[in-house]
Design brief:
heterotrimer, A mainly beta (128), B mainly beta (353), C alpha+beta (248), B: 353 residues, mainly beta, Cyclophilin, nine-stranded antiparallel beta sheet, 4 helices, 14% helix, C: alpha+beta, Gyrase A, domain 2, nine-stranded mixed beta sheet, four-stranded antiparallel beta sheet, 26% helix
């Protein structure tokens, strides 16, 4: 019989269907077949948007979220920055957009200048 | 004016995002006082986000623009993100849109850049609680009224919801089925009705307007989308005797560059209006970011009213679909440990139709 | 006078009177607006009267365009038979002219070849018709500035103009109801709150009324401002039918 469930894992809901195929006799190793169950757990394995610990040694590239103008750059090369600290301010659609550091680190590269126009995805600076 | 219940804190703003405001469906009946509608730029997405968390479709939610906020959850509640497709996370997990997500006290919602579309809505069970100003909770930025003191969110702000309870029983799982989820494009065709002042333009001007792609300029906002492209020629002059500016009206000043008037527009103005965007297509404009492109397709008024009916029918259908999701047969809670990771798991059996 | 109807998108209809600005035409606009407000059935959402036209917002899901047009024709017909004229109301607007309250008074005077006193006398010497309210919250479009004191706008607008500022721009005069940026030449300031979203209605006048500017001293300004803040200031209104009274 097929049954439907909602499985909520850490606040995220998945709809799954479970079908019992046959009883597996004891002593037989479990089959590789996933028995129709959506492997929800593997889906929520951490895919952090900000760098995880092993990435700490690497550079994080900060890029423009949408086309804008660079209003001001708040940091200099080599500055120490903390997570959440404002690195630069973009201006678009009459909004001032504070771009903050996703992690603690050092300003490694500054790839734009104040007043310059940037396009979507353009690299602004890197933190390492 | 009166907050009807005790405030129930739901979020602390850790980062504001590019422009995050509180919006409901808007402020009506006040244009004669010079006050525009304001309200959600993409009304469809706001309505669906509200339905997902079990609210009235007009409840106030956060409107997120381009780059979202980082929020700390202050109390267990239900939230739903709709509109643009954002790169978003709930703690360490991806935070998916168009579905009810239960969030726990202490969790962090981090909404980053929009991957498709430009504006999103974060609804919370009970709706966001702020005083009503002239009948609406919507933020009108230039008029400095509504929402949170008439301004956009800032770091440190506390956001309250008007209801402390998440109706656990009635909302096991709610998600918008794939076929209803809008896909936003950066190159859109928008349907318009010509007039009321298309007679201010010569044939060549109208031909240019209807056959060109226009690019969204950097200084577009909630007031207006300013477009650049081939110059639309007037017959004589661009100025008219000042009259009302409906939402979606396309003004063409003397420079021949069209301006689409949006939620926070001035209520009256003196430039000729070549055409008006139909109501169901205004959100297509609202979801554009700078450098995106738009072109206009002329339709008739009767056809437009049919589209309006279709949109209403679609929403009624969505409401039914979501309500049908709201039945649970059994519910069990587990804590599952996989290696070092601990997962809070809730299993609910729902009817198999 | 029959109006011409123009579709403005899928939810609005314009009713246009003759294509010019005149008090007679504007009076018809407001009269028709008040009739529709009274008679409006289901489906008419809001009405925005302007110089010479009315914009009617409707819900096409509840009221078809055809039915709306028929209803409007009928209202217009009734209106013609009624031949009703609304009372002319004049609102007294106290203004402290010059000094820090109207820093461009000197400029207006010198560019008009008049003394400051003469500018004040001319500006406060006539009633101004409120043609319409619009653009921004509580902003009123006034008619009939004496051309002797017409002055061009500032080349660079001020970033911050205080609420209540009275200004001149070309042949227009007006009041900034809220603090905003602006390029008008400022000649004075009123203590009155011309827009308050927490008041119902948020504006103390209706289009079709007149403003009469009354010069006051700085001391009176401060006193009245205090009363306005406490919420017990009454605007003096002269009504052609009911005489003078105070309200709001």
């Amino acid at each position: 019989m097929r049954r439907k469930f909602t499985v909520t894992i850490n606040g995220i809901a998945y709809e799954v269907e479970v079908e019992e195929l046959e009883e597996v006799p004891e002593g037989i190793p479990p089959s590789d077949e996933p028995s129709g169950l959506v492997p929800a757990v593997s889906k929520v394995s951490p895919q952090p948007p900000s760098p995880s610990e092993e990435a700490l040694e690497e550079k994080v590239i900060i890029s423009a979220p949408f086309p804008a103008q660079v209003l001001s750059i708040k940091k200099n090369l080599g500055d120490n920055v903390r997570e959440g600290e404002v690195l630069l301010i973009l201006e678009a659609m009459k909004m001032e957009i504070e771009i903050s550091s996703p992690r603690d680190g050092i300003i490694d590269e500054i790839l734009v200048e104040e007043g310059k126009r940037v396009e979507l995805g353009d690299k602004l600076l890197t933190v390492k | 004016m009166i907050a009807n219940k005790d405030p129930f804190p739901v979020f602390e703003v850790l980062e504001s995002g590019a422009l995050t405001t509180i919006q409901d469906l808007g402020r009506f009946g006040c244009q004669k006082y010079g006050v525009p509608f304001s309200g959600a730029m993409d009304d469809f997405s706001l309505k669906v986000a509200n339905l997902l968390v079990g609210n009235d479709s007009n409840a106030a939610a956060l409107e997120i623009t381009g780059l979202g906020p980082k929020l700390k959850v202050l109390n267990d509640t239900g939230v739903a993100l709709s509109g643009a497709d954002f790169n978003a996370a709930l703690d360490e997990s991806p935070f998916r849109g168009w579905r009810l997500v239960r969030v726990r006290k202490g969790s962090i919602i981090c909404i980053k850049e929009a991957r498709r579309g430009f504006r999103g809505y974060l609804a919370v069970t009970g709706g966001i609680e702020v005083p009503e100003v002239l009948g609406s909770k919507s933020t009108y930025l230039t008029g400095k009224m509504g929402g949170l003191d008439g301004r956009s969110l800032r770091k440190g702000d506390i956001i309250n919801s008007s209801s402390p309870e998440v109706s656990q029983v009635r909302m096991p799982l709610r998600f918008l089925p794939e076929e209803y989820v809008p896909v936003f494009s950066s190159r859109v065709e928008v349907r318009i009705i010509m007039g009321p002042q298309d007679d201010c333009f010569d044939d060549e001007g109208i031909k240019t307007f209807l056959n060109s792609w226009y690019v969204v300029s950097l200084n577009s906002d909630r007031t207006a989308y300013r477009l650049t492209g081939p110059k639309i020629a007037h017959r004589q002059k661009a100025d008219i005797i000042t009259d009302a500016i409906p939402q979606g009206a396309i003004q063409v000043p003397g420079d021949g560059q069209p301006i689409v008037m949006m939620a926070d527009r001035p209520t009256t103005g003196g430039y000729a209006k070549i055409a008006c965007v139909i109501a169901p297509d205004i959100l297509k404009i609202a979801q554009l970011k700078p450098q995106d492109e738009v072109r206009f397709r002329k339709i008739g008024i009767d056809e437009a009213h049919e589209f309006l009916k279709d949109k209403e029918t679609e929403l009624t259908r969505i409401r039914k679909v979501l309500e049908a999701q709201a039945t649970v047969l059994t519910r069990k809670k587990y804590q599952v440990r996989v290696g070092d990771e601990v997962y809070q798991v809730q299993v609910e059996e729902i009817p198999d139709e | 006078m029959k109006t011409e109807k123009a579709v403005a998108g899928d939810r609005a209809l314009f009713l246009n009177f003759a294509n010019r600005i005149s008090p007679q035409i504007n009076r018809k606009v407001h009269l028709l607006a008040s009739f529709i407000e009274k008679e409006k059935g289901e489906g008419i959402l809001e009405i925005v009267p302007t110089y010479r036209s009315l914009c009617i917002y409707y819900d096409p899901l509840r009221l078809t365009l055809k039915d709306l047009k028929t209803a409007l024709d009928q209202i217009e017909h009734e209106l013609e038979r009624a031949k009703k004229t609304p009372p002319a109301r004049v609102l007294e607007i106290p203004v402290v002219y010059g000094g820090e309250y109207g820093s461009d008074l000197g400029f207006v005077a010198s560019s008009s070849g008049l003394s400051e006193e003469e500018v004040i006398q001319i500006h406060s010497g006539r009633d101004y018709l409120i043609y319409m309210c619009g653009f921004s919250p509580g902003f009123s479009y006034l008619g009939g500035l004496d051309e002797r004191i017409a002055t061009p706008r500032l080349k660079t607008p001020r970033v911050r103009v205080p609420a209540g500022s009275v200004g001149i721009a070309e042949e227009q005069t007006g009041i900034y109801p809220l603090e905003s940026a602006g390029g008008w030449r400022l000649i004075g300031r009123t203590p009155l709150k011309l827009f308050d979203p927490y008041r119902d209605p948020p504006i103390p006048f209706v289009p079709g009324d007149y403003f009469r500017f009354i010069p006051i001293s700085e001391e009176e300004y401060q006193k009245k401002l205090e009363k306005v803040r406490r919420g017990d200031y009454k605007i003096l209104i002269h009504d052609s039918q009911q005489g003078s009274f105070s309200c709001i």
